[in-house]
Design a protein that fits this description.
Blueprint lengths: L10 H13 L5 H10 L4 H9 L8 H8 L3 H74 L16 E5 L2 E5 L5
Helix pairs in contact: 4-5
Length: 177
Amino acid sequence: MLTVDISLPDIEELHKLVQEGQEKGFLTYDEIVAGLEEVDLTFPQAHALRLLDPDRPLSMSEIAERLVCDASNVTGIADRLEADARRRAELLDSETAERRQQLFGELEQEREKLNTEVENLRSFEREYRSRLKSYFEQQLAALDGSGEKRPALLDSERCGRRREGFGKPVVISRSAS
């Protein structure tokens, strides 16, 4: 009969070690696992990633040796990490494309709104100029005392005086009375 003598550490000593570790900022296994779950990694995946060094690439068999597991397990871990990375990249691409579409849609709506406002202002300007022209014609007619309406704008060949207004030359002629 084979007997094995296993000496277990004192429970109080274990609690003391855990407390010291927490005071020094060490994480418990559960805290580590919870943190890994937040970034969708398993403990073996995180352990495999921890072994990687970009300056010194390792073969699958070397990683398997360091993880103390079979190379097929390392291949499975690597395949899952690669698939997860591709899935995340595709998700980021689709989210970026969706956001771009949304922004372009918003910009197009804003553009249409601004074009409508510009057209409204142009319409207002045309109406304002027309009313101003009519008002000036009425005022000229009243000054002449004739009561009949005359065109207020004349071409420069038939005109005696010229004034500038609204960016276009406006010619006003008065008869000598």
